[in-house]
Design goal:
- This protein is mostly helical.
- It has two domains: 42 residues; 45 residues.
- Helix content is 68%, strand content 0%.
- It is built from three helices and no strands.
- The longest helix is centred in the C-terminal third of the chain and has 33 residues.
- The mean pLDDT is 88.
Length: 106
């Protein structure tokens, strides 16, 4: 392989690693293999976790199309109707929180 320096190559590097490991005690080799195993597991977990559950779920957006010739009075009436719905939803949420507060004895 051309990107390795001239006196070495993949076979020479693996042979050098094997010779290095042969001169180590059994405990050192086991410890080194366990360190490589744990590091590999951690890296794999990070890679897999980055691919799982990252995409947000699809959202459905409903758009109301209005005619272009609406009058200001129609627009104001629609805004008042929407404001009333929003206020009703807020009051219902407040009522639910008050119910929860009573259940918890606060």
């Amino acid at each position: 392989m051309s990107w390795f320096p001239r006196p070495s190559g993949p076979r020479a590097a693996f042979a050098d690693l094997a010779a290095f490991l042969r001169h180590r005690s059994r405990e050192q080799v086991i410890g080194g293999m366990l360190a490589v195993l744990v590091t590999t597991i951690i890296v794999i977990e990070f890679v897999l976790d980055a691919k799982m559950g990252t995409a947000p779920p699809p959202q459905v957006v409903y758009v109301e199309l209005f005619p272009s010739n609406r009058t200001d009075a129609q627009i104001i009436a629609d805004q008042k109707k929407d404001a009333a719905k929003k206020r009703a939803a807020e009051l219902e949420k407040q009522r639910q929180y008050q119910k929860l507060e009573k259940q918890l004895g606060m």
